[in-house]
Amino acid sequence: MNQQKNFGNHSLYAVVILFLLSFISSIPGFAGDSCYSYLSRDTMVIGNNLIERKFYWNKGNLITHSLTDKENHYTWFNTAKHPDFLISGENVPVSDAGWSLERKPETEIRPACLESQVVYTLGKLQVKRVYRIYEGCPAIACDTYLKGETDDVWVGGRENQADLKNIESTKDMGQTALMPILDQLSFPGRHWNLETVEFFDVTDRNNTLVKPYTALSYRKNYFRGNLLFARNEENEKGLFFLKEAPCSSVQLSYPEADFISEFGQLMVTGLGIDGKDLSATEWTKTYSTVLGVYAGGELNRLAALRLYQKQVRKLLPERDEMVMMNTWGDRSQDKKVNEAFCLKELETAAKLGISHFQIDDGWQSGKSANSAFQGGSFKNIWSNPDYWKPDKAKYPDGLGPIVQRGKKLGIEVCLWFNPSYQNDYEDWEKDAAAMIDLYKRYGIRTFKIDGLIIPNKLSEIRVRKIFDKVLSETGNQVVFNLDATAGRRGGYFFFNEYGNIFLENRYTDWTNYYPYWTLRNLWMLSKYVPAEKIQVEFLNKWRNGKNYGNDPFAPANYSFDYLFAITMAGQPLAWMEGTGLPAEAFPTGKLIEQYRTIQHDFHEGIILPIGEEPSGKSWTGFQSLKGKTGYLLVYREKHPDQTAEVKTWFAEGQTVDCTPLFGKGEHFTATAGKEGMLNIHISNENDFVIYAYSIR
Q1: pLDDT < 70: residue spans in the chain
Q2: Which runs of E-coded beta strand occur in 562-614?
Q3: How far apart are CA 63 and CA 81, in angstroms?
């Protein structure tokens, strides 16, 4: 295959396609769209103003020719001669290849995008690869679907390095075992610096949720994680792979690795399905991959990743921004939940500036396994057709009075919901219908989705059908708070188009709520996961003080303002009963109201961690980058110094004008030092300040 071929000579067919694209781009909603894709003879191309990926057509079984970073004027040329998508044992002729192009219009969920679709057949197996690209985004996503049957085994086959013979010749360097490959590239160069990042949910049991790992790409090695960053040290150009899948430890059909590298060869493995999951008549989706480009340092690569992540689900202020109160955090479970209790809670929530009030488990007629009363279960939910209707004893007039009072107070009422997992969610349509009815009857549009158990592909498919059905029937207005606390669920990069992430259960009753723990988890995640998509809790610090004894990091040692402030980079969650708060708590309502005036603007930026990792004794925080402007949210934990140098994302030598909005701080102008260091002053320990800044 001649890699010096001139790819600039497009056929008449390509010219016609480009003409049609230019015509489509003149339609309202596509103005200024730089996304394009075409098939010309033996070449398929997809790109926009920032990135382009070019393929050999290879009868539809695409082989990457090159990857271009347009912004940095650099092109990598692929040295591999095998297809990008590789399933071991499927070495059969390719047939029935087809290509199509579709521009997906903007919806309430996603911005407009261009989809370039390739379909082909490998023996008895059909393959569909859909490449997605968005305007102004330096990344291209690929969704893979399979249909038909195979005799091959796709999971397993990874060799143990210790079982291989020592290397005495080039023949000894090879790998004998094969694994299915979702995507791959092979670029020249021996000096590739890698960082992979593994993530952990099941937060009832995990309190360190991010595990980065750095390495030099050498002989064939395997890595776990949803993210792989690769940077060529010879030219300081880089790329990343994002695997849109649950956390590694809970993925389906997992081969015990997500990435394979060998010098400049980079592969994504782990389809999330095995041959037994295939259907002869319907497409089955594998995990998706995203390939992005960047140049320079860490900020550039994180910004490139975040630009893609912000395309997955639009953040609409009237639908997605919230300061939610959920009473479950005070451990009353379902003992108090009824109409009178909820009406009182709404009054206190209004005093605190809350925007959303969520009734957790106990509002429904059915009794769950988490009930404080005996006899509850999640089994055979639909043996009771009224399970997901309001409990008549608790809510004699339904939820109407609660919803109406909430509207008068400016508070949206939300609910908890636990889909029926029995027989791989065979009752998914009933679950969807129940939420649709609650939306149509009461206007409920935010549901906390709890109790998910996704042990196999059929369960995953049906859970997705629940969400898709609800969104379809509600005009994409529903938000799902996807609980990440237990079980096999979506993690941080899967199901993201459906809402936000309910991160963790923490309770003063069990002394597992420490403010710096909560801040640390958000801080560590925010480097790789949009903070604005994570619900983060603050609790009633006046409860259970005796449980903590003389612990210097006990919640009681922090102001209530501070406890709220540690949640501001995310979606704040008042994990408490408002009626259980003392009078001294409610002045924090002023801070919450101030925060809500900037909440969406803050979240529209690229939010990244600054300072040191929270430890209870650090200077730490977040920066929201919006070009020449943005926000700095800085915390002085229990640190002895009133002034500290805080590492930010400003470039060395940039002059920054910082105006305090709330918290404890004064206006200042300063020039950033090495690594963006800024001197910031906060007089008191365990205090904070949020600045609006502009770069001069």
Answers
A1: 1-32, 88-91, 156-178
A2: 571-575, 606-611
A3: 7
DSSP 599: H
98 in Cβ contact with 39 (< 8 Å): no
Q: Which of 629, 623, 633 is nearest to 663 (CA)?
A: 633
Element containing residue 132 per DSSP (H, E): strand 125-134
Distance CA 60, CA 39 (A): 10
pLDDT of 151 reads 77
- Strands 655-663 and 619-626: what pairing? unpaired
CA distances from 347 to 255, 304, 415, 585, 619 (A): 52, 43, 18, 14, 36
Tokens of 364: 């429904």
Contact 562, 592 (CB under 8 A): no
Helix, coil or strand: residue 42: coil
Residue linked to tokens 């064939």: 220
Q: What is the pLDDT of residue 179?
A: 84
Percent of the chain with pLDDT over 90: 88
Backbone phi, psi, residue 506, to 5°:
-135, 140
- For the sheet containing 43-47, what is the strand order? 36-40, 43-47, 51-56, 63-69, 74-77
Cα angle: 164, vertex 167, 173; to 5 degrees: 75
CB burial string 368-403: b at 16+ within 10 A, e below: bebbeeeeeebeebeeeeebbbbbeebbeeebeebb
CA distance 16 to 6: 20
C-alpha 588/C-alpha 585 separation (Å) is: 6
Contact (CB, 8 A) for 241 and 262:
no
Tell me the two tokens of residue 406. 């909430």
Residue with tokens 């979702």: 182
Q: What is the pLDDT of residues 304-329, one digit of tens each?
A: 999 999 999 999 999 999 999 999 99
Can you give the pLDDT at residue 171? 54
Find the helix packing angle between 428-442 and 457-473, rounded to 10°.
20
Helices then strands, counting H and E runs in the chain, come out as 12, 35
| CA gap 71, 693 in Å, rounded | 27
Q: What is residue 259's three-state secondary structure?
A: strand
Burial of 557 (0-12, 13-18, 19+ CB in 10 A): middle
- HEC profile of 233-246: CCCCEEEEEEEECC
- Give me the pLDDT at residue 29, please: 34
Instruction: Report how far Cα 250 is from the mean position of its chain's Cα atoms.
Output: 16
pLDDT at position 152: 73
pLDDT in the model for residue 576: 98
What would the two tokens of residue 544 be?
Answer: 């259970």
Retrieve residue 265's tokens: 């060869």
Question: Is 661 strand, coil or helix?
Answer: strand
Cα separation, 690 vs 104, whole angstroms: 39
CB 90 within 8 A of CB 152: yes
pLDDT at 61: 96
What is the model's pLDDT at position 156?
64
Whole-model pTM over 0.90? yes
Residue type, 310: K
Tokens 């998910």 — which residue? 452
Interval 195-204: pLDDT, tens: 999 999 999 9
Residue type, 365: S
Helix (H, G, I), strand (E, B) or coil at 213: strand
Specify whether the backbone of 3 is left (phi greater than 0), alpha (psi in -120 to 50) or beta. alpha
CB 306 within 8 A of CB 300: no
Distances, alpha carbon 546 to alpha carbons 510, 537, 556, 574, in Å: 11, 21, 10, 22
Residue type, 312: V
